[in-house]
Amino acid sequence: MGVRALRLFLFLLAGLGTGSGLGLGYLVYAYTRNLPDLSQFERLRLTATSTLYARDGTLLAQIASVEEGRAIHRSLVRLSEVSPAAVAAIVFSEDRRFFQHYGLDPVRLLGALWAILQGDLQGGSTITTQVIKNTLLRELAQVRTLERKVKEWALALELERRYTKKEILEMYLNVVPWGGNAVGIKGAAEAYFGKDPAALSLAEGLYLASLIPAPNARYQDLKGVRERMRRLLDEMVAEGWVSREVAEASWREPLVPKGWQARYDGEGNLLEARLVDPEARILRQVDFRMASHFVLEVRRFLEERFGKEKVYGEGGLRVYTTLDPGMQQAAERAAREARLPEGADLALVGLDPETGEVLALVGGVRRENDQYNRATRALRNPGSAVKPFVYATALEAGWTQATLVPDRPLEFPDPSQPGGVWRPKNFSGRFLSREITLRYALDLSLNLPAVYTANAIGIQRVAEKLAQAGFVVRYPTLAIAIGGASITPVNLAAAYAAFVNGGYRVTPLYVKRVEDAEGRVLYEAYPQRRRLFSPQVAYQGWDLLKGYIYDLGEKGLAKGARIPGRVVGGKTGTTNEARDLWFAGVTRGLSAVVWVGRDDNQPLRMGGREPSSSVVNPPIWRAFVAEALRGRPAGDFSPPPGLVKARVDLLTGRPSPQGVEMWFPEGQVPFPEEAPSQMEEPHGTTP
């Protein structure tokens, strides 16, 4: 080749090099002129799973955030909250020169450029570029193009300039996808091993690291992952990351990820492996640890309080609830062991009568994954469980427990009834045909005296009091005196609390405090109490409830609710055809309700017969309360000023040394020489 030809060749070669450089430069300019803003990382750090805690700090449940319509299980962690062994395993596997390079690993970058020249657009990945790929360039993550690579490299350099290595590594551990719906190291640790990332071993860290390039496929190949773990351990020893002793101890660890059954020999060799439940690693949108119906109620509160975008689109909430784990276990055990009528379900709720904090809640026991919460959603007729409020309203009007009320046939005009007349009946169909004390009327749970009382003091007054207590009163007729209103179990427990807390109807509370991911308090609850009765009336109501449990001895309708060493009070309730069975009871430290019924509101049958709430409900209540309050203060409540105690005959209302002790307002204690007051009976009074 002549000199002239050589010069021409070199000129062309230089031109090609310059053109290639200019072309490459133009591509870099074109791909990087509209890069995403790195400030978006601040928002990305907030997208996380919300965590619910019981009152003692026990993990109660987790609510996954939602990204692109899919539930994502990611709980953000600090680098200090991940075991150093797991961090080392992941860094060594994914980017062992991470702490030496500036976002781009020269060794890997040269390999990537060579691959690109060969037409293969992969390689060159570092932890920094993976942070970019899984956040700002997520829409390009599954597309292998030169544009994505150039953008990753450019943004990686800027990320390294703005953040420290530890901050970038922390970002990586929180955003890397780990298969299924687990994102981030905390989600992965829980999904695959059911533990906190701080507790991960070196072997578990290596397993998780080995999944990263193709987590869904590699999860199904435990044998192949073990082979990669062996290579990584040998390389870590060769490069001085761990000692041979540590490596061999890690290899011998019998690693069994969730969903797998595996067997190893003493040297760490995998003898047998079988994937038995591929869904075991999938974390549900709501991951319950206990009290599923309580958790669903908390979720509903969060949605209403903060909105779904905050709960699912941002997440990261730390929710401190009122639930007492010990009491919840007692409630669930009592519910499981309950003897129920055919086809019936139950609701059981216990709350603090002073604050309204819900301590235990069971919303149903018949079906798994049942989201219908009967404790908070079953609006049913309470039957005779409403009577204490009718009589307390009468006490408020100046009556006493010894006031006489008739138990004989009554009738009232009612166009909805046959013949235009309503003739209420007692549950047994019989009556005493005489006047008895208000207290004895409650002890026997008689309907006629309750209807008479409501009529005498004014049905409108009774209806207003029931509404204040939390009952739904659609029509203020006399029928509400024997169960014609409606209420949910949790609201009945909140209403009964008034008899032992000085007269306040409390608002049920499920959440005490909510914090965001940074620990800022977004919500803090304070007890909400509404005056329902005076302390004197409330205490007389408590006295009535105690009488229902103890006055009649072994003939008492709620003798099954008695707890040795503890003073309790309460009332049963049975609606027509036994469609609803209730027991509401109070004692020191707890107001609790048990409801039993069918979701389709059909009549209940037990052994072919119509069951009674006095047989079904009190034993369930007793089993729950006795265990829930074991070791806690018992004893009676102290009366407020203005009340005095006297022994009175249950039937006649006259003072009697052999009578029952009752509390009366000062100046209203019956005197021996006085004849019992006679109340005029209604004659066709319009309700």
TrEMBL record:
Transmembrane segments: none annotated. Its main location: membrane. Residues 668-687 are annotated as: Disordered. It catalyses: [GlcNAc-(1->4)-Mur2Ac(oyl-L-Ala-gamma-D-Glu-L-Lys-D-Ala-D-Ala)](n)-di-trans,octa-cis-undecaprenyl diphosphate + beta-D-GlcNAc-(1->4)-Mur2Ac(oyl-L-Ala-gamma-D-Glu-L-Lys-D-Ala-D-Ala)-di-trans,octa-cis-undecaprenyl diphosphate = [GlcNAc-(1->4)-Mur2Ac(oyl-L-Ala-gamma-D-Glu-L-Lys-D-Ala-D-Ala)](n+1)-di-trans,octa-cis-undecaprenyl diphosphate + di-trans,octa-cis-undecaprenyl diphosphate + H(+). Residues 349-588 form the Penicillin-binding protein transpeptidase domain. It is found in: Membrane. GO terms for molecular function: glycosyltransferase activity. It comes from the Bacteria. The keyword Ribonucleoprotein does not apply. Keywords: Carboxypeptidase, Cell shape, Cell wall biogenesis/degradation, Glycosyltransferase, Hydrolase, Membrane, Multifunctional enzyme, Peptidoglycan synthesis, Protease, Transferase, Transmembrane, Transmembrane helix. It holds the Pfam family Transgly. Residues 70-236 form the Glycosyl transferase family domain. InterPro entries: Beta-lactam/transpept-like, Glyco_trans_51, Glycosyltr_51/Transpeptidase, Lysozyme-like_dom_sf, PBP_transglycosylase, PCN-bd_Tpept. The keyword Cell wall biogenesis/degradation applies. It is an enzyme of class 2 (transferase). Its EC number is 2.4.99.28. This is peptidoglycan glycosyltransferase. It comes from Thermus composti.
